[in-house]
Queue: 4 jobs
Job 1
Amino acid sequence: MRTALASLLVVCIATGTLAWATDGFRVLTSEQARRLAVSERPVAVPDVGLRMDNGARQSLRDLLHDEGARSIVGFFYSRCTSICITLGNDFRQLQQRIVDEGLEGRVKLLSISFDTQADTAAVLRDYRERMRARDNIWQIAAAQDGQELAVLLESFGVTVIDDGRGGFVHNSAYHIVNARGELEAIVDLAKPLAALRAARGRRHEA
Amino acid sequence: MKPRLILILAGISIPAVLITPAVRTLLESSMSRHMLVMFPLLVVGGVALAYGLPRSFHARLLPWNREGIPGLALAAAMLMTWMIPNALDSATESLLVDALKAVCLVVAGFALAVSMPVAGLVAQLFFVWNSVMMLVYAGVLYQSLPTRLCSAYLIDDQAQTGLYLVCFAVLLGMAWLGHAWCRLRFASSSGPGRRSR
């Protein structure tokens, strides 16, 4: 009898801990957990300062604040030779679609570099030229060092780790942020069109 | 100092040392160290704690843990929870979650130590077989996935951890077979329900 009671208790504990670890049996990885959390409840992004490619300093909230517009935000560093290249190319194609579909002013792109040392204004300008980024659609900025960078990355759920060869390894996705500075959705890097739909305010695919 | 006291002290100090900032950083900076050094050490802490407690305590626990079934189930659940990548990532990010992980794994070790000796071979086999399969599945998955499961760890680290998990699973299975062989070989001389300590 007592063993049966103990077993019942164990089943409850096991269900509880596993439910906690999987966000109610819905996710396995922290990346999935973060996407689910954001889709259920938008998260306000912090008002950190950014260094723009023209050398000016601007606050993230000001950049995002544009009535009726949503921004697709992506994190990168310009020396990156893997995931950021995909992100950069997809941003280029998104920019083209924004032009083609007349979405200027409704959907904006923002690339934020977390490589505070190497990505100087000049390097970012070079990146802008390579990507043929248009001023009115695609903003390019770098985070500022120290605490602000940590707060920024944490709020977007981006984890950056040293790859041991002078570069970084990081998770990447399309972050859809509205004009009030709320992160509304995180869309997989493989689905740029879903990101665009989400940024146009249509229900995006999970 | 009495051996029991030393075991209890070890059971308390191992998890306490493992969640100090320096040791956390050292062990959790790599996935393989996190899962294959830190996890087993915490489980060993729980085992030490159980062996440090007097026999009378184990005897009092027995009616609640017949055949070791709730205990083995608890240990399996604790181990499984912390093998979920989301939980592993959370532990690297927050000290609170890490402390919870330490408690869970110490509990797992404790439950194992009080349950294995009173569990029949069939119950043991069920537990060990499931653990081995879980480790092998996770190990193969870690080695074969092209994407990272944990934001905190590199892909090479993940693949290496996968390989180590499979090796660990094989060793665990072989160790249990050895244990089962001894138990069967000497079963006639000690009778049923004996404490194998």
Note: The helical segments of chain A are 2-21, 30-40, 60-64, 83-100, 121-131, 147-156, 192-199.
Job 2
Amino acid sequence: MALFTIRDLKFTYPEQGPIEKYSAQPAIEGLDFEVQEGEFLVICGKSGCGKTTLLRHFKTALTPYGKREGEILFHGEPLEQVSQRRQSEAIGYVLQSPDNQLVTDKVWHELAFGLENLGYPQQTIRLRVAEMASFFGIQGWFYKNVEELSGGQKQLLNLASVMALQPEVLVLDEPTSQLDPITAADFLATIKKINLELGTTIIIIEHRLEDVFPMADRVLVLEDGHQLCMDTPAKVGQLLTGNDLFLALPAPMQIYEGAKSPGTCPLTVREGRRWLGRHCPDPVICMPERDHRDPAEEKEPIIEAKEVWFRYDKNLPDVTKDLSLQVYPGETFCLLGGNGTGKSTLLSLLSGIRRPYRGHVFLEGKDIGKYKNKELFQHFLGVLPQNPQCLFVADTVRQDLEEMFDGREKITKEEQQRRIDRVVQDTQIGHLLDSHPYDLSGGEQQRAALAKVLLLDPRIVMLDEPTKGLDGFYKQKLADIFAGLKARGVTILMVSHDIEFCAAHGDRCGMVFDGSVVTAQPAREFFMGNSFYTTAANRIARERFPEAVTVQDVIDLYLANKEAGRAD
Amino acid sequence: MSDTFSTYHPIINFCLFVSVMGIGMFSLHPVFLVISILSGILYCLRLKGRKCVRFLLGMLPVFLVTSAINPLFSHQGMTLLFYLRDGNPVTLESIIYGMAMGSMLVSMLVWFSCFNEVMTSDKIVYLFGKSIPAVSLVLSMVLRFVPKFQTQIRKVSDAQKCIGRDVSDGGTVQKARHGLKILSIMASWALENSVETADSMKSRGYGLRGRTNFSIYRFDTRDKTLLGLMLGAFAYLVLCIALGKVKTLYYPLLEVNPCTGWSVPAYLAYGFLALLPVTVDIMEDIKWHYLRSEI
């Protein structure tokens, strides 16, 4: 018997307001599927397609308030009739934010929390906690305060404390959206390990499809609350061709579909390489078309750091060491690097929030310390923090935007409105103006915050991890906004983990390691030169098309060779 | 500095601090005060090493001020030393009482600094949660929330600085407005994010009947032995004080009990209690030294 049977599920959220009224548009509708025991099911879809709403139906304690039709059976029994106690144990949930899910202050207490709730005796808890700590490698930080943990450790702890209840099924809602790629891959590998070694059923929403697709048994794709398809990953790839979601698929699948080639669909880089080797063994055209413009040759740098040193406290080690960097007007500069290499600190130095203890930062040739605050933040510099929520102060997005004019230069109402209209159009948030900023999805919040920053009319925009937690579709929107800014001559400096995004949209890239910038090169050369820290498309094609960096490069080259009769 | 005493059961830690500080504070006996200060300083040095020296130096003015203030305001006592300008007398007893109060205050502060070091949050949560389980969870959640709030407020303040809106920008009115804005952001943030915490609690079965309390502490043999010794010493001290065998009077004349077969063991008992943490540490050091030399 199936673990979960979903029969014709439909759910409608109530409208805002005192009267019991339901919105005309159901959040999810006509869902009908089964989840088998031990299965690894990935649910994907655009933001706002009802993924999270669906996921919350797998446990009555989390089911949102609204009108539900259809049935959810757990082991053949309606879920509402399964006792809370049994549900708490058998169905484990891991949510998005590593921070907010932690309830207590100590790691060991967090592990025991669920078991305490279920009223297990001391001896059983001791054993289970010990088991979990060993399985997940937590022994090293068992006695720590949760506050001292890194994001990845926190999320692992959330997982472990759910696993301590020995659930039959683990339901995860974008568990890696707040993590960097390497930590995220580790986390997902742990999920796979649980699936393989303990036989726990996994139902996961994830936008890092390149990591989860190879792991999945089946993929469920939702679109506007409807079930678009549910099949094996390779089949889903074919079915999604031409859909917006296609952009989110793993690079090998995109290349395969884009090249319209025969053969089986590759899921991983390894399979992608093999596939390319089989179908395009010795290409004649190997170089993508490119412009040889190096912005470094032209102008004076707009942002310049000269031998900058920084540490947070006299007794702490240096975070930034002997760092020098030049960014030229009008370019999009990406700073990449692993966790804890000092990327975010660097951004705060360049934006003047923190001051180096040695060395200087120049903006347009003038030392940043000599700027007055007013000069800096009006028509000059705009900084988007990693968490956009830090910027919102009002009850609606509109008020939030209007608030930016408070206590600044005096301008007329009409002028204010004109400026707001422009950034609203630039960031495409027209339909969100009357919502509460906290009600927006991650991608929408990001754009609303960016709109606020753009109201300062900056010539330099600095962004900290702008693509964190965004799916492929929202990344594309962000890229469009960047293109618009660039066309107006705005310099963009961003710090990111997102190799694929930087490869596709950055002019130059720099690698931060050990507190300083190791290399800074035009994007293509940068990724060509790296063999490990580079895009999936480059890793797939580097033997045959060494200069191809993005998926589009590889597809173009493949098709060009096909025309030349060198590929099938 | 590794402190063996901290590794004992929280009840032992707590009882020791309560008995040493309680007896020192309520008896105000000069011998107890001297023992308490000296052993407190020793333990503080043992726990915090050099960092403690500055703290101890800071205690000196506290002592001086307290002992100077008392004779200025209290004019009781038989032994008249001289008259103040305004005609009030200064007595020997009031000076001595002031010094006693000063040393009591200093010894309490020193012991409290040790208490802070030894009684970490989880021990306190454990102790008080034993009697009221709900309190222990609330305490634990508060201890989780406060640092999280602080981190977030720092982030928000940085983010606001980026758009030229920090508490350090603008005139006084502007500063206040920016500060209020940051607080208002924090309020919505706290409410918004606690929803997810609540979900995480619910989904892990919070609110079901029969919640138990898990702790990592075990009461073992060495805890039992030490608790027995401590209780013995404490009971004897309480008995002596109750029978008036150990007592002191500051007004109208300074009067301390004579050294008798009752009082000398009482001093020893108090010394035992006050020096217990340091003794336990030193015995452990010796043990390790011995073990190592055998290897």
Note: The mean pLDDT of chain A is 87.
Job 3
Amino acid sequence: MKVKVLISVVIVLLGLAAGAYFFRPHNFHGTVIQSPDPAYNFTLTGAKGQVSLSDFRGKLVLLYFGYTFCPDICPATLANVGQALRLLGDKAGDVQVIMVSLDPGRDTPAKLAEYVAHFHPSFLGVTGAQEEIDKVASLYGIFYQKTAGSANTDYLIDHTATLLVVDREGYLKLVFPFGVSAEEIADDLKYMLKQ
Amino acid sequence: MNKYFLHGLYGLLGVIMLSAIAFKIFQPIQVLPRMHLAPAFNLIDQDGKPLTSEALRGQFVIFTFAYSHCPAPCYGIFETLQDVQSRLDEAQLEGIPVTFVTISFDPQRDTPAVLNAYAQSIGADTQRWKFATTTNQTLLKTIIGSGFEVYYERKEDGNFAFDPTFVLVDGWGIVRAEYRYATEVSNADRILRHLGVLAEEVRNSKGTAKLAYEAAHLFLCYAP
């Protein structure tokens, strides 16, 4: 009898441990937003025509705001995002990365397409009229302003370097700070893709 | 053996459900929801200096929206903020800075000089309390209307119809509370209590404590 009790106790404990493991909440590396409203549905121009956020309903969308003259932060972040997509393997097809240019004066759609392709073939680069870029950036919490650059770059653009994730239903769900690693991005995306 | 396994499974599910229900009912930790991103902006303040959303990162910011020609007492907005300003110690912020930003939707009349005089007239400490706007009316509408989701419209007599609102934004630029005049109790007590709840979360934003706070978010344990 004692053996049976002991076995049942062990089973319950193992069950609890397994349950705690399988039902544990995912520890997000980014900050989770519980927005009741869908993310702002912009329409901007890519190399192959108009691109709207709503075109990608059903996929996760990673939004990054930057510019092709960006000397350090943008290439570092986009390289990490590219690596994260490679870590996702087959599931990368359910994720669309869009880089919104903060430098519509210099970033043409063709130039953006060439730039983002260095990081991953599926990335899209979009731009538009200054007024629309101002609106999109503001509504996604992205501050930016021109600053003096070198003779080579003419001017630089200081900008908020967060990486944003819009879920399959079009709601902003996650904000990654600058410096997040490819593994951390992939970990959160994997979890969101399972939901 | 099969019976014990089932008992174990039921026991496990029971414990998980009970602990989830207990967490939800007793709410050992309360948080403020992460509602949405606050809009980014680049405004000009009452001293003619730039006031950017980026410069306010790392601080709690209470945004209000008004204009200097607003007929007094202007829905009591400034009385409430003055009350919060004088009682900030109650929130136990332990060094986390709090800034008040009043954005004017009347840039034609509210030049920096007018805003400065207005700030003085209502006894605002402009080190902590900024008054700002931008002459780019399109962007202003984007920031206030779409970004902060606050309605305003110029009437024929030059005055404004608007929804008096307080918006509390955390150090990451995320809106954590909105107090709307028509639907919410927008008094200083509530704002101060919420500042305290936010500060508590910031103090516990690392390690195991962070997990408990994320659970509070998951179970929607929101401070009233």
Note: The interface with chain B takes residues 4, 7-8, 11-12, 14-16, 18-19, 23, 25, 27-28, 31-37, 40, 131, 134-135, 137-145, 158, 160, 172, 175 of chain A (CB under 8 Å).
Job 4
Amino acid sequence: MDRIPILKLGEALLVTIQVDMHDRLASALEEDLTARIVATGARGVLIDISALEIVDSFIGRMLANIASVSRLLDADTVVVGMRPAVAITLVELGLSLKGVKTALNAERGMAMIRQAAVSSLIGTGDEPAAHETAESGDLRGIDGDF
Amino acid sequence: MSVTVVPITTGDDVVRVRQEVRTQAVAAGFSLVDQTKIITAASELARNTLDYGGGGTATVELLRQSARRGVRITFEDQGPGIPSIDQALADGFTTGKGMGLGLGGAKRLSNEFAISSEVGRGTRVTITRWK
């Protein structure tokens, strides 16, 4: 079976999606990525989708799942390289990819991951690190219960 | 006029539908954004046909009406049908594991949208986008 290669780049894992995703490939990627996060202690996952001609709700859901699972494993996910036509189509489709961080290109995405890793090192156990308070509504909801 | 029928029985067939729609959208002279919109709409509906209709077909047509060019795709299945089409078109409605954006999203991405469904007989969805 085909698998999508996962490269280690400093504290981050880099995944370049170049092929048309189908169900098995998507779930294999999710499993491989989570295993690699745990094995390497990576602080971030960079997903390059610049080769993707479309992102439909299936791929959107896969990206959102990877972001959620990675977050539980203490790694930030940043999706980079989205084509302009894909962004326009996603908005019209109604898919806002809440909870998925994006950056224009791999360089900016790596900077985001590095920044998040640094601020989580500075933050003490008592208060949430800066990148956590900036997360989407569901996390803030959890904070509110404290 | 070019007509291609693509069977939809596996996840790989969804990819094949996208490729055929891209070919026809390029032949119709669509802009990159319009190509992306119609391919994405077709991808959503092909997956619906597979996941909810139990498989079926996608018929991809290149349309020429005088100076106008367009692409029409018809998805047909002999699945369980949709009891409430209004409900199925609403964003966020899903009976499966999806996000519930497929039908409504595909409608927004198309210029023309038609759906007919009979419970126990199947569903037919037609989308058209013009250049």
Note: Helices of chain B lie at 11-27, 32-51, 85-89, 102-108.
